[in-house]
Amino acid sequence: MSQVHHATARALLRRLAVEQAECRIPSLTAAIVRDGSLAWFGGRGRVDGAAPTAATQYRIGSITKSMVAVMVMRLREEGLLDLNDPLERHVPGTRLGHLTVAQLLSHTAGLTAEPPTAWWERTPGIPAAELLDRVGAEELKHRPGRRFHYSNLGFGVLGELVARLRGTSWLKALQEEVLDPLGMRDTTPRPRAPHATGYAVHPWADVLLTEPEHDADAMAPAGQMWSTPHDLARWAAFLGGEAGGVLPAAVLAEMREPAIVDDGDTWTSGYGLGLQLSRARGRRLAGHTGSMPGFLATVWCDPGERVGVLFMANTTSGMSGALLNDLLDILDEHEPRLPEEWQPVAADPALLALTGLWHWGPKPYTLRLLPERGLSLEPVGGAGRASRFVPQDDGTWLGLDGYYAGETLRVAADHLDLNTFVFTREPYDPAAPVPGGVSEWHA
């Protein structure tokens, strides 16, 4: 699948046009990524008298955080840090030294939302050393790990962490290690032509106020970057698994796992490792929102459907909040994805012999053979503990997900040993080592 059909494009453009007109946005762009490629782009409004294009720059605000998080994960993959490391190990001498890297990435460190400076989004920034020196006990608002509390300050600190471990600026490291390899050469720390000007729209009149734009310096990792719809589409594809050698796909999947939820009663929004998470209309999305004076942007990916969606606008506020899910709904309605064709695969006879019915005590489970020599253990009827397993060099199997994630499955001649739980072909097989010797079934 590549470009959307004409009727789909028209429906998508109409939804974009309604958003721009009814929400009074000076200019608005949106794009859909499908199977790793740009499938649709639309633009409305004017930038310097012309319609915006896929090459028009907008400020992307906190989407910058997801880029910084990728750099942190690269450092982890190289063995230069562990996510459980306290900050003191890499950025010594601060009052935040007890906070872990993972807590900072997931906004669970308990840090204040904003830095102890003037309104950082609208004033020139200060150097990292001065910012860290200003941070005191009053910037710790919650017990670390207790709850989600979004912190711009936390990502300013993570930018300094990257700089210390790389021996250069976080921005230079990001450019060389992430943006350039992904072909995102129009993603920059300051605007370049053609770019949209940031505006505030008067709430009661159709007039504009130009918003300020400054170098945020130490706070730049929280929201400095500018990008284009074309580059942000590449970022959506990357977050969805088109890793391009920057990170292993498994690490991107780890970043998309929920570390904390923002609304525990309903779990519609949460945070992973540097990525926002959303559950809406049956979809589970990962990406990030962004806002800075005069600009709003959001990028989401749905890895299961191999689709991404984004918008970029030059307005301080006023978006409906429904645009991106509406665009995905239109795509699903007009061009629903076809399931992958089923094809038979070669099977190892020894593994094939393991498949079928097993019992955990009286509860029946099915063991299925998956492609690439994987196994899936699922309760009959679907209710209960289910996990997938992959083979290890020592002959054991490692749990990938579910209750048994990270646990070891051992296969014996007449039973399965899953982290001390014994599965047998018959319910409570008396020949099994555990519990073994049970009495006969009776009325």
From TrEMBL:
InterPro entries: AmpC-like, Beta-lactam-related, Beta-lactam/transpept-like, DUF7586. Gene3D superfamilies: DD-peptidase/beta-lactamase superfamily. Residues 20-326 form the Beta-lactamase-related domain. Residues 348-425 form the DUF7586 domain. It comes from the Bacteria. This is CubicO group peptidase, beta-lactamase class C family. It comes from Nonomuraea maritima. The lineage of its organism: Bacteria, Bacillati, Actinomycetota, Actinomycetes, Streptosporangiales.
